[in-house]
Amino acid sequence: MDIRVLKEEDDYLVISKPEGVCVHDGVDNYQYTIVNWLKETHTEIQKYKWQSKIRPGIVHRLDKDTSGVLLLAKNPKALEFLQAQFKNREVEKHYLALVCGKPPAQKGRIDALIRRDPKDRERQKVEFVDFGLDEEKRKQSATEYEVKEMYKFKSEMLSLVDVKLLTGRKHQIRVHMKYEGCPVIGDTKYFNKASKRISKNLGLHRQFLHAINLKFKDLQGNQVEINDELPDDLEKILKQVKS
């Protein structure tokens, strides 16, 4: 598996997760995962007693077909320390997304409640109406975005967007951009007719979504910032839409 280590210290490491790889085992997933890779390359982590047997060292997650910066802990103390930053929203996370159409503003913010789609348990949906559901089912979510570039591809407008996650809900960016009327290109779960057509024309079979930047504090209190360049498959797509 082609996994690049972007930074490694005694307590943690940061990798560039490739697309098509799950972070850990889950329902209906028995393929090779980031956890498998971590156990093989850092055998010392197996001597610790982790709170979760299927997620040792996993600080946060990226969707299977989302690539980019992923932070991993090398011991339980580091895991607890780093996860607390995510829980307290002290970590800054940026993604680069190519979306269909033009967002309503150059810089914008989306605040919405997200819940599991009752018609499809594998999907999430934005919901503003209170149907009496408890907070376990309806979770507040917030995303900021900035349009970096715009392209015209086969008479369709596309926008390259820097997305900052303020909360970390399942499929949050993909759900929010679809709600804005600008679904992520290549997304086979949250799409419209235009994005599906463009994705097919581009030959893109995974969402154009890449975690490009992560800022957090290490166990010594130092600010750490990690950047990750776009992978080859997404760079190829950008060249197509620019031509």
Nutshell version of this structure?
This protein has 243 residues and is α+β, with helices and mostly antiparallel strands. The protein is 20% helix and 33% strand. Strands 1, 2, 3, 4, 5, 6, 7, 8, 9 and 10 form a ten-stranded mixed sheet that branches.
CATH architecture of the largest domain: 2-Layer Sandwich
Share of residues in helices? 10-25%
CATH class of the largest domain: Alpha Beta
- In terms of quaternary structure, what is this? single chain
Determine the CATH superfamily of the largest domain.
Answer: Pseudouridine synthase
Beta-strand residue fraction:
25-35%
Taking all Cα atoms into account, the compactness measure Rg is 18 Å
* Helix/strand order: EEHEHEEEEEHHEEH
Give a short account of the largest sheet: 10 strands, mixed
Low-confidence stretches: none
Task: Explain how this protein is built.
By secondary structure, the protein is of the alpha+beta class. It has two domains: 1-88, 2-Layer Sandwich (Pseudouridine synthase), CATH 3.30.2350.10; 95-210 and 231-243, Pseudouridine synthase (2-Layer Sandwich). The chain has five helices and ten strands, in the order E-E-H-E-H-E-E-E-E-E-H-H-E-E-H. Strands 1, 2, 3, 4, 5, 6, 7, 8, 9 and 10 form a ten-stranded mixed beta sheet that branches. The longest helix has 12 residues, at 76-87. The chain is globular. The mean pLDDT is 91.
